[in-house]
Amino acid sequence: MKRFPLLLLLLILLLILLLVASCGNISSALKDKNNQNNNMKVQVKGNTPVEISITWWGGQERHERTLSVIDLFEKKYPYIKIRPIHQNFEGYFEQLSTQFNAGTAPDIIQFGGNLNDYVYRGAVLPLNDYVGNVLDISLHDQSMVNAAVMGSNFYGVALGTNAWGVLLNKAMFEEARIPLPSENWTWKEFIEISIQLSDSLESVYGTEYFDHNGFGIFIDQRGKIMHQNGVLGISYDDVLEWFQLWETLREKGGVLPPEIQVSSTSTPEKSLIALGKVAMTLLPSNLYGAYSSISEDEFVFHPHPMHEGRSGVSLRPSQFLAGNANTNHPKEVAMFLDFIVNDKEAVTILGNDRGTPVNTEIREYLYSRADENDRTIFTYIDWVSTTSDSYYVPNLPGYNETSALFLRISEEISFQRKTVEEGAAEYWEQLQLVLSHYRNGN
User: C-alpha distances in angstroms, 259 versus 206, 263, 405?
Assistant: First the structure.
């Protein structure tokens, strides 16, 4: 009778132990379940579908290369869908400004040297919060990083570095029995060669007009700077001298007549040199491959005519890729910017089409396996970097207005609607007016 309470006590203790063990297992299971839920929340958040849009300009080859990079990115990040918007350069920034005003601008935007223009308008996404985690620029050329720093913010990745030069149609030089110029040729020699080509070739002109990009080089050759933060470093006489140079060429038949020049386009397939209308044209180095691949004639990429031994050509960012300040997906924007300049496979696809890569490790990798066209570009970039003391100057503020102004005045002079003196005076007056509006924040 006395042993019964002992057995009962042992049974109660056993039940307590089983209950404790059971509670421990439940607690562990709940913890696992909680972790699973947390993981599931993170996973679901990471896989929430995101769509962002991107816009760029360029020819068919650039279009196809960019689409391939987008496909590659979407495979790596399947929850991100990118909507591509490809345009020709003509009208690109006019359309972009309209989109910004309407609040419909794409999430990712390709800019040129006018990135500063849109930064000052508050239209570009500052990337400081993403540098060092989402976006790695540690292996980028410092000069190309600096080119996208304004104030205390970093605004975009340079897609490549390039330099202006002159594209020569070697077959036309040979047909005209004119030797290719030397590396240190002068403007006087350029004018003489242009006239000789026009005189020797049927329905072909020596050179195309060099537009505002050529004018910037022309200014640098004289030891001046076009502007600094919108303050001009040039004079009316510089403008007059530029327009007089081309008027001389026009009078002697060395440059395309205006009725042909107005059809000029930056699209390689439709360019006047590709169509066999002209033997020389001003070109950024990154487009050499695109032009060479669309013509049966052999092209040569050559240094720009010099003034008193100075080339005036600098290394410059070919284009920037940046985010819309009003994007709903800034992190995903930064992820794509990182991918397009740092992923080896992506940069290999792009090659030199947007300039020589700014990531030093990838640049060395590409150089080791470069084809003939790419080696030409690498060689030219090296030549500029070792022979030129010119430095990068961003486009004039109010790029849409200032470039349109330069084009309009150039055409009015070439069509003889204005004299050189009248055109130069109007350009000088209107340019200062545009820049004063910019400085006053209008």
Answer: 15, 8, 19
